[in-house]
Amino acid sequence: MEKTFAIIKPDAFAAGNAGKILDRIYAEGFKVVGLKKIYLSKVEAEGFYYVHKERPFFAELTDFMSSGPCVVMALEAENAIMKWRDLMGATNPADAAEGTLRREFGTSIGENATHGSDAPETAAFELGYFFSGMELL
After folding, report:
1. For residue 31, what is the domain's CATH number?
2. Which helix (DSSP H) or strand (DSSP E) does residue 75 occupy?
3. Containing domain of residue 70, as a range?
4. Of 3, 115, 117, 123, which residue is the catalytic one?
5. What is the pLDDT of residues 74-123, one digit of tens each?
6. Any residues with CB less than 8 A from the CB of 46 and at least 6 apart, and which?
7. Is 115 an annotated catalytic residue?
8. How many domains is the chain partitioned into structurally?
9. What is the pTM of this model?
């Protein structure tokens, strides 16, 4: 079994879609081994997205991610990283396939409902950023 990190972003949370997204996560066979509702500060968002610090969208991204509550999750499944990325869909909801979370719940490339780790190393960092070992069941 593999673990990955996932976020239901502030846009999806504010729109009342967190429960619908969680339903899909369970329906797709993921085990939720860690889950919490958080409100990222600007500094916490900057720390989480530090790899994008030099990118032109960094300020907009961290402003958005600190704009309201979100749900952070540790998910477990066979090939969890790729399975979650497939369920999320393309970054731009307009390009995401039918049936994906971003197609259904995202509204723009910046407000695209969900986040997910893209590699085992990224998942390890992201899981450790939000969860202690004792919080993962």
Report:
1. 3.30.70.141
2. strand 70-77
3. 2-132
4. 115
5. 999 999 999 999 999 999 999 999 999 999 999 999 999 999 999 999 99
6. 53, 58, 62
7. yes
8. 1
9. 0.94
